[in-house]
Design brief:
about 260 residues, mainly alpha, 8 helices, single chain
Length: about 260
């Protein structure tokens, strides 16, 4: 799951860069995102090579995972090189490809932990779960870093890119909540036996997953947007710090629940 968590961050960073108008943000911010992507992919590659945790026993899945992994690394490298050249539109395209490749990679990876889902249905459930989760993880990080960028490059940017990313986070947290309830919480409520210690522990984790990982961050995202609208960028950045930590805890709980229940919370 360590590999999946890092790939989520990478895909989310790519989404943030793809959603941002490259003419409204600084090349330094885009370059920083590319450097973080490459660093996380390097660490994930080392863990993947040592443990082999993401391959599984199915040869078809292993081939798709390898192809998507190469594609994600290639897209991340291209995005960073294009930023270095100052080619803003081309790097946006590379970031879009990186996000889509990362979402498919995560969907295939999670498929091995979801015995109740199979084939195309399982892949779609995995991608639908991972895409907004990745956007929240990487998006929180890059939005917070954009808030920091206003301290040194405030004269180079308007409030528009900050607002755009905060709105993106708001849409993603709602989408993540709706999809998680529909593909995970509802089946769990109807199909699982809720008696016994293990079921009680899962219940505690589920409450924490939604309260800590989605509902409270959703409130903080609204507070952040209000701060950005008032041009209080330092306050917005501080709120994003806390919201980012809560999202990390929530998505960590979701991955733990995936292993124990087989459902993409």
């Amino acid at each position: 799951m360590v590999v999946a968590f890092m790939v989520m961050f990478v895909a989310g960073i790519a989404l943030s860069q793809a959603m941002s108008d490259p003419r409204q943000v600084t090349l330094r911010w885009l370059r920083l995102g590319g450097l973080i992507e490459i660093s996380l992919l390097t660490v994930a590659g080392v863990v993947w090579t040592v443990t082999g945790e993401a391959f599984g026993d199915d040869r078809g899945h292993a081939v798709v995972l390898k192809v998507c992994s190469v594609g994600l690394a290639f897209a991340g490298g291209c995005q960073l090189m294009l930023v270095q050249r100052g080619w803003r539109l081309a790097q946006r395209i590379a970031a879009t490809v990186g996000f889509l490749t990362g979402a498919v990679l995560l969907g295939v990876f999670l498929l091995r932990y979801m015995p109740g889902y199979g084939g195309v249905t399982g892949l779609l459930a995995g991608v639908a779960s991972c895409a907004p989760a990745s956007g929240l993880l990487g998006g929180m990080l890059m939005t917070m870093l954009l808030g920091h960028a206003y301290l040194t490059a405030g004269g180079e940017m308007t409030q528009d890119p900050f607002k755009r990313l905060v709105v993106m986070l708001g849409v993603l947290v709602i989408l993540r909540l709706v999809l998680s309830v529909s593909v995970a919480l509802w089946p769990w409520w109807n199909q699982f036996d809720h008696a016994g210690f293990e079921a009680m522990w899962d219940t505690v984790m589920i409450v924490a997953r939604y309260l800590v990982g989605l509902i409270v961050p959703g409130v903080f995202i609204y507070m952040t947007y209000d701060c950005v609208r008032r041009r209080s960028n330092q306050s917005a950045t501080g709120i994003l710090y806390v919201a980012g930590v809560l999202v990390i805890l929530g998505e960590g709980a979701a991955l733990a629940l995936l292993k124990s229940t087989g459902l993409p919370f």
